[in-house]
Design brief:
The complex is a heterodimer of chains A (about 210) and B (about 220). By secondary structure, chain A is an alpha/beta fold. In chain A, about 30% of the residues lie in helices and about 25% in strands. Chain A has 6 helices and 8 strands; from the N terminus they run βββαββαααβαββα. The chains are: A alpha/beta (about 210), B mainly alpha (about 220). The interface of A and B includes residues 53, 69 and 78 of A. Chain B: It holds the Pfam family CcmB.
Chain lengths: ~210, ~220
């Protein structure tokens, strides 16, 4: 099943085009890893696909209600406990399996701890556990392994593997080798915008972006 | 949506939340005014409705920027925007949570502070009714201001400038209801206007605020 198809895609950050002419598809069971130097526009592209900003040109065709997005920030409330944070997102997405997600990311022992007392890596694990309770097939991940140790990175790769086997797909920007068998890599460098950006913003809104 | 409401209420009540801030501010204002104006009834009673309403309005303003700013900082706003919950619904729920944690305690505490300001007893029911009808508009209009300025550094000042003019009609009619109540006149007309403003805000603001949020999240 096709979960995502992008064609002739261009995205802009701060009014300047960063990526142009990008096209790719992602089917169920596939993982696509975006690569490229800092500033190439990986985060901007992922935000576009998550629907947080419109593309500058081209089209993105998504299966309905498919995307679960994980950004640099994990969206964790320090005053709530780990289990409460996760239960909130499970209820918002109408998903289940909070207990299984805690187990998969090795957070069971920390479930009643306030999330504010977690280390950076533990917070990251909680942020990734959130993906599992969304019940959505397409995971859009922005640098998912930042601040994870080697063991947690392996654990996360296993979780992604299981997600792919269950008919999901993953699109991620990462600089390290996750070791997910069959993952395709897409280098964004050839799609860097040529710099022929419009001298003037297209619209009134963009002038204030 | 219920999950979001429960989460916001829980966050407001726990450490670092904004619960009680508005009431504390309201208490300070109502306790200080008699010292400044003088404690006699002849001086205080005529200005009491206005001061109570200005106090409620400023107390409400105090905690407005928390509606979206905290969620924006830790990234939950991005995640909420990609959640199945419509953003309009999320705005309405967050404004409701703000009203429950700020407006409702103010309404409950207002009769006590009315006594401090020598508000005539006949005006008490009118004060409560006017606050009950008017404060939801304060939270809603405030959510709009907060949505416009989310992500701006030190957006609080800009938000106050944007929101205060929008608060003026509510202030005028709210204080008028209480004043007419105190003088024993019919208060139905300003009360109807006050309710009209609130209903208009409830109907329109979720759409305006979520449009502003979408622009700011780009």
């Amino acid at each position: 099943m096709r979960l995502l198809a992008a064609e002739g895609l261009a995205v802009s950050r701060g009014g300047l085009r960063v990526i142009e002419g990008l096209g790719f598809t992602l089917d169920a069971g596939e993982a696509l890893v975006l690569r490229g130097p800092n500033g190439i526009g990986k985060t901007t592209l992922l935000r576009c696909i998550a629907g947080l900003q419109p593309p500058a040109a081209g089209s993105i065709v998504l299966a309905e209600d498919a995307v679960a997005y994980a950004a640099h920030a994990d969206g964790i409330k320090p005053a709530l406990s780990v289990a409460e944070n996760l239960a909130f997102w499970a209820r918002v997405f109408g998903g289940t399996g909070a207990a299984a997600a805690l187990r998969a990311m090795d957070l069971e022992a920390l479930a009643d701890r306030p999330a504010g007392a977690l280390s950076a890596g533990q917070k990251r694990r909680l942020g990734l556990a959130r993906l599992m309770v969304t019940g959505r097939p397409l995971w859009v991940l922005d640098e998912p392994t930042v601040s994870l140790d080697a063991a947690s990175t392996l654990r996360f790769a296993e979780v992604v593997r299981a997600h792919l086997d269950g008919g999901g797909a993953a699109l991620m920007a990462t600089h390290i080798e996750l070791g997910i068998a069959g993952a395709r890599a897409l280098d964004l460098t050839p799609y860097r915008a040529s710099g022929a950006a419009p001298a003037r913003p297209h619209s009134f809104n963009e002038a204030f972006a | 949506m219920l999950a979001l409401l429960i989460r916001d209420l829980r966050l407001a009540v726990r450490a670092g939340g904004g619960f009680g801030l508005g009431v504390a501010f309201f208490l300070i204002l109502s306790a200080l005014v008699p010292f400044g104006v003088g404690p006699d009834r002849a001086a205080l009673a005529p200005v009491a409705p206005g001061i109570l309403w200005v106090g409620a309005l400023l107390a409400c303003l105090l905690s407005l920027d928390r509606i979206f700013a905290l969620d924006h900082e830790d990234g939950s706003l991005d995640l909420l925007a990609t959640a199945p919950l419509p953003l309009e619904g999320a705005v309405a729920v967050k404004a409701l949570a703000h009203w429950i944690t700020t407006g409702l305690p103010l309404i409950l505490a207002a009769p006590l502070f009315g006594v401090l300001l020598q508000l005539p007893p006949a005006a008490m029911p009118w004060l409560i009714v006017s606050l009950l009808v008017g404060t939801p508009a304060l939270s809603m209009l405030g959510a709009f201001g907060a949505a416009l300025t989310v992500g701006l550094r030190r957006g609080g000042l800009l938000m106050s400038l944007l929101v205060l003019p929008l608060y003026i009609p509510t202030l005028i009619f709210g204080a008028e209801v209480t004043r007419r109540g105190a003088e024993g006149l019919g208060a139905a007309t300003p009360l109807v206007f006050l309710a009209g403003i609130t209903l208009g805000a409830l109907a329109l603001i979720p759409f305006a605020a979520s449009a502003a949020l979408r622009v700011n999240l780009r």
